[in-house]
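Lecture 7 notes: from sequence to structure.
We start with the chain below.
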Amino acid sequence: MKKIITFGEVLLRLSTKEYLRFSQATDFNADYGGSELNVATSLVKFGMDAEFVTRVPDNDIGKCAIMEMKKHDVSTNFIIKGGDRLGIYFIEKGASIRGSKVVYDRSHSSFSTIKKGMYDWEKIFKDASWFHWSGITPGISQDTADVCLEAIIAANKLGLTVSTDFNYRANLWNYGKTPNEIMDKMVSLCDIMLAGDYAAEQYFGIIPEGKTKKELQESLCEKLMQRFPKTKKIAVTNRRNINALRNKWSAILYDGKTMYESESYDITYIVDRIGAGDSFMGALIYGLNHFDDKKALDFAVAASCLKHTIYGDANLVTSEEVEKLLNGDSTGRVNR
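Predicted structure tokens for the same chain:
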């Protein structure tokens, strides 16, 4: 099977230990992650060939980020080096009724200053069948938006399936353009979407109609497909926050005619919810390449449910572990 290409920024993740607040922390755990890298890592864990494309500084921190990718067998053949620094994000983990908190420090990062023409997309896409990006990338800077659109156009020209995760971040989009000015053309060239009502409103002013959750989700999908007729499938995840350590998690997948609904999982002790949406997207891409739509949805929800039990950005589970949960085994028993 041909490889999957993902494109975005890798960040240094600095996490307070246990449940400490930033003001209490004297040291931090250092890891690496980023939405599109997380997707690539999931795909590799499921046995697919995934390539992550980005830019990192030519220093020890940039080299450590690449080492982390290679540790998980993510291909790094087209990563370029340059710029001044790797972007950083800080996270303190919430507990009970106190939510988690994220602070970004990514201004003037190596990735934020990439330029059109730096990447040979025809060469990158030569042995690929799928290209994935998220709304975080065009939100970083005009340059990252330009390069991302360049990649999307090239992927379409070469016949790749293009997927996107809306991933709206309110603290981005501060370079003088509104999200709609940038995202409309980019999303119009996509085949698969991971959407949400809040992001759809922020990007496109789309507000779903209906009285029930199901009616609202179906309305959202229909309105998005009307606006973006190239779209073939839209997924929407559903998170019900009971507290910081307990959530209910499910999703739907809409193909223009049928809306598939997944089982709802009650996740009673969350280790780390960062990257859950990315783990869903990675598993959905895997599922759509191996199963029918309903099984693909169920696989993605189960995989992302398991992500909540794993520290760090990436979902480090295998397809066998996902299938085990799908088959009803949520006991957590030791495998010997």
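Points to note: The mean pLDDT is 96. Residues 26 and 332 are 33 Å apart (CA to CA).
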